[in-house]
Amino acid sequence: MEKSIGIPKRRRTLRDQDVRIAWFLIAPSLLIILGVTLWPIIYTFILSFFVAPTGINQARTFVGFGNYLSMLRDQAFWDTVKRTLYFTTVSVTLELIIGLAIAQLIHSRPWSWKFLRFALIIPWAVPTIVNGAMWRWIYSADFGALNGILFQLGLIKHYIPWLTKPDTAMNLVIVADLWHTVPFVALILQAALAGLPEELNEAAAVDGANALQRFWFIRLPLLRPAILVALIVRTVEAFRVFDIVYIITGGGPANSTITISYLTYLFSFSYGKQGTGAALSFIISIFTITMAIFYIRFLYRPEETQ
Amino acid sequence: MKKPRKLLRELGLFLLTIPVYLFIFLPLLWLFSASLSNQVELFTVPPHWIPQHPTLQNYLDIIFPGMAASSVPRTFAVALLNSIKIASAVTLICILLGSLAAYALMRIPFKVNSMIFIGILGTRMIPEVSLIIPLFIVASRLDLINKPIVLIITYMSFALPYAIWMMASFFQSVPIELEEAARLDGCSRLGILFRIVIPISIPGIISTTMFVFLVAWDEFFYALIFTSTLAAKTAPVAIAEFIGRYAVNVNGMMAGGILAMLPPVILALIFQRYIVSGMTAGAVKG
Predict the structure, then answer these.
(1) Contact of A230 with A99, CB cutoff 8 Å
(2) A-contacting residues in B 112-171 (Cβ below 8 Å)
(3) Which domains does chain A have, with CATH numbers?
(4) CB distance B46–A180 less than 8 Å?
(5) By the 8 A CB rule, do B208 and B160 touch?
(6) Alpha-carbon dihedral of residues B183, B188, B189, B193, nearest 10 degrees?
(7) How far A167 CA sits from the closest chain B CA (Å)?
(8) Mind listing the pLDDT tens digit for each residue in A163-195?
(9) The pLDDT of residue B286
(10) What ipTM does this complex have?
């Protein structure tokens, strides 16, 4: 593409005109995006320094870092952070491992592989809330499919109230989330696998590398960019999980599935403490924006667009 | 000697696909079966995997007001319609405005375009929960709560950056030589966009359209906060409302779930060949 240096004089005017057109084309989108993202995030940041009771005309008091400090001293906050990190680490790790396994399986062209790839689209396209509602009923203590199937197979003697146990509830939410997200990772990685040059793999086979060695030393390094994209996108999404927790457990039992987004929601809209909610949500933003910087550095290469 | 080994490999691989199929389809079949069960069969121990008296009553209850005698809230059809309206409006605006912005950012060199582009990419990562309080305050002041327009506007916060990012990566693959040739022939910038770039990028635009529609359809958080009446409530909110304070309306939730998943699933299956290119270009809907 043309560079700004060395443009002949007569084309300058064309270039000025171009810049005007560019602004004209970008302006509508830019104004909307500034209005619904940049302005609110600044407002949220400012609000996080105030005690702000929910309600339109409530008086606000400036408390400096008070909201942040009181949160950092609150054990419930740290428990929530731990839970959110647990959810994020476990779900993203499993998604990548299972997703990669399914991608490799499709790539090996088993019978019906095209249908398998087609079928994976369904759970990915099912709305999160429907997914959550479905698993909520599967886990149901009295009439759910999980109890039904385990009971009929003779694996359990009595029905188990899965979602009332703090230690199992979070893991069950993760399983439900996997149903929706593994297909996404599998489809991305499968596409990446399909795009790899086969020659390397064949050459290694000729040199006597077995299937596992070929996968580990040749495919996996080549897949790194695709894996990284999936990893970052999924980490950001998982860290701010809300919908599926809301629908399956509503944060319970005994607060054992309350994640940071959920806690923010509770502070802002149930406990009537918008200042604390704002401080919490800003912490989430800092985390996701840090991830975003990695993501952008990785995905956005200016030399390709300039 | 090679033949039986090859056959064994085929068989082994096929056996590996079975757990994947089961994981995909068992929950869906259970959901479907539950949506066709009556109240009695739904609450049996052990469960009736296939309803002995399949019925469409659950669907009728939530779609046609006044047709059934049950206590199911007959509001689901309205919520579905709201979802369709809102997701379509969001998609239309995003494609129209987003394609203009994406083209300018990708193909017209000016000083700050890479900065704007990075900024737009960055906003995609901001969680909704960090934007909700100010948006809620303004929406209440302007009396926009419970109106579809508030969702159409707020959905822009994730849908528009997403659409721009996706279309930018599709526009990028249009050969620059074509554009240069058109410029030499005296074609204007807008002429190039509408006569060359957009027609060539039709598959990418289809892909973007589908993805934006899906994320807008999927959205729950804004809808939960901003809507509670039938005037704007979306299908996901209506499904969540089947969970009452004391009891869950399972019949309604299952039938509602099937209905709410049909539009995105059908769209995704029809346009399946655009999905993976869209995923790698956009990679955002988790």
Answers:
(1) yes
(2) 113-114, 116-118, 120-135, 137, 140-141, 153-154, 156-157, 160-161, 164
(3) 9-62 (no CATH), 76-305 (1.10.3720.10)
(4) no
(5) no
(6) -90
(7) 23
(8) 988 889 999 999 999 999 999 999 999 988 888
(9) 37
(10) 0.90
